[in-house]
Specification:
This protein has about 60 residues and is an alpha+beta fold. The protein has helices at about 35-40, 55; strands at about 1-5, 10-15, 30, 45. It has a 4-stranded mixed sheet with strand order 3-1-2-4, covered by helices on one side. Strand 1 and strand 2 (about 10-15) form a beta hairpin. The longest helix is centred in the middle third of the chain and has 8 residues, at about 35-40. It is globular.
């Protein structure tokens, strides 16, 4: 899932979570696995430190 955060200029994608992550807010949308991998390479998005999606996908340690 990709979580969006509200900003003064509108929502911005902010974090990438596993589908069952309990730390994700209600402002998320599901994405395919290959889209999640691409999102993790985006400098403006972060991998959730709780569910460790990058580790699960074999991208980050």
């Amino acid at each position: 899932m990709i979580e969006q955060r509200r900003t003064p200029t509108g929502p911005h994608e902010a974090a990438v979570h596993l589908d069952d992550c309990t730390m994700a807010s209600d402002r998320t949308h599901s994405v395919a696995v290959h889209e999640a991998r691409l999102a993790l390479t985006d400098a403006q998005l972060e991998s959730c430190a709780f569910c460790r999606l990058g580790t699960e996908l074999g991208i980050l340690d």
